[in-house]
Amino acid sequence: MENLVFTQLSIPEVRQLFRQELEQFFKALPCAPPKSAINAENLSTRQKTAKKLNISLPTLDDYTRRGIIRGYRVGRRVLYRPEDVEAALTEINTVKYQRA
Fold first, then answer.
1. How far is CA 39 from the centre of its chain?
2. pLDDT 10s digits, 21-59
């Protein structure tokens, strides 16, 4: 635990100390890439994504609203990343012809 020392400081000195602490705090934070760093060249349109999954556009809209497939809005368009489409696909284990 740090020792506390009470002294009289002027307002400019308090501001300077506060500014230094904030600068140190923000320098220590990891830099995250901006959200706009998504490569727009790899994104697929709704039509291409629905055709790839062999589903209709209303079904794709429903999946997007329910959070099954993540979509990205660019203006009025909704685009999909291939990684998100692949992540939405899950394997189903069938038990057809299983004997007891």
1. 14
2. 999 988 888 876 565 556 667 899 999 999 999 999 999
| CA-to-CA separations, 46 to 2, 9, 13, 34, 75, in angstroms, rounded | 58, 62, 57, 24, 14
d(CA 64, CA 71): 6
Angstrom distance (rounded) from CA 54 to CA 37: 29
Q: State which amino acid sits at residue 35.
A: K
Residue 94, amino acid: T
Question: One-letter amino acid identity for 33?
Answer: P
Buried (b) or exposed (e) across 45-56, using 16+ Cβ within 10 A?
A: ebeebbeebeee
Tokens found for residue 3: 């020792």
pTM of the model: 0.54
Give Cα 52 distance to the centre of its chain.
23
CA–CA dist 73, 54 (Å, integer): 22
